[in-house]
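Tip: read the tokens left to right.
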């Protein structure tokens, strides 16, 4: 399968001012760590780091992200948000919307969101987002790490994941997906969704999230801190509202909930 090329990607995105710099590694530990180092060196917002292979890919809650060479998309985007702290929680939601939208463009409406920003298809994991925020004297930098299973077959997954993971290729009847074309589509979607957010249209981003996330409204969930409640959409900060017997509980993107099976 052809490798990712920074120059070709830059040419495909030349009309996207949001993307300022593209770096492609053959192998790296973690694209999030690479983006963080570039941020410390003064890299501009819109810096994108991709890798053909990660040896230390990670997901939310300390989990690892399996990153076999030349079949998945492993990408990190550097943002420098200027919003007050209560507004930065909206970015994980915007990222989830963009990733799900890009996946749907290739694999159809089977792609849905699971709180806060996992993309599933037929209950199997297709993609995930890891958002890492750091404050420094020069301001905040936010790295959006995105992993998408693109051209994996079932045999490419570890045996322990074959029942719970899927890929765009598997959803497209075994047809190989052009990873560069998908990366460009994903970055366009990210640029558009983040622009919508920054234009003050949080309501539009939230509505799109709720269209993609069937369990974010009206479903019984179990809270990580204990107890249960019914999901009730999104708060203005980007948190998930859960109605409990004691009132509304806000679940932030760094936290999880578990569906209570009916």
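Filled-in amino acids:
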């Amino acid at each position: 399968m052809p490798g990712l090329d920074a120059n070709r990607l830059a040419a495909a995105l030349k009309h996207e001012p949001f993307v300022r710099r593209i770096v492609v590694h053959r192998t790296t530990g973690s694209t999030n760590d690479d983006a963080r180092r570039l941020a410390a060196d003064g890299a501009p917002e819109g810096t994108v780091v991709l890798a053909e292979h990660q040896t230390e890919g990670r997901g939310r809650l300390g989990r690892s992200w399996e990153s076999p060479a030349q079949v998945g998309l492993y990408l990190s985007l550097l943002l420098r948000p200027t919003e007050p702290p209560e507004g930065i929680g909206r970015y994980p939601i915007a990222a989830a919307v963009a990733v799900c939208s890009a996946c749907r463009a290739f694999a159809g409406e089977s792609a849905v969101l699971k709180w806060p920003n996992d993309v599933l298809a037929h209950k199997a994991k297709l993609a995930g987002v890891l958002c890492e925020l750091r404050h420094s004297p020069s301001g905040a930098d936010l790295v959006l790490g995105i992993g998408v299973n693109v051209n994996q077959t079932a045999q490419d997954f570890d045996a322990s994941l074959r029942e719970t993971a899927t890929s765009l290729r598997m959803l497209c009847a075994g047809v190989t997906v052009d990873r560069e074309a998908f990366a460009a589509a994903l970055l366009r979607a990210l640029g558009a969704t983040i622009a919508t957010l920054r234009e003050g249209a949080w309501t539009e981003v939230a509505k799109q999230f709720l269209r993609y996330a069937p369990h974010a409204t009206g479903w019984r969930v179990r809270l990580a801190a204990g107890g249960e409640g019914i999901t009730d959409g999104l708060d203005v900060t980007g948190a998930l509202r859960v109605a409990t017997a004691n009132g509304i509980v806000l679940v932030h993107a760094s936290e999880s909930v578990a569906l209570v099976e009916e």
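The two ends are 43 Å apart (CA to CA). The helical segments are 6-12, 31-40, 85-88, 91-107, 168-171, 179-198, 202-212.
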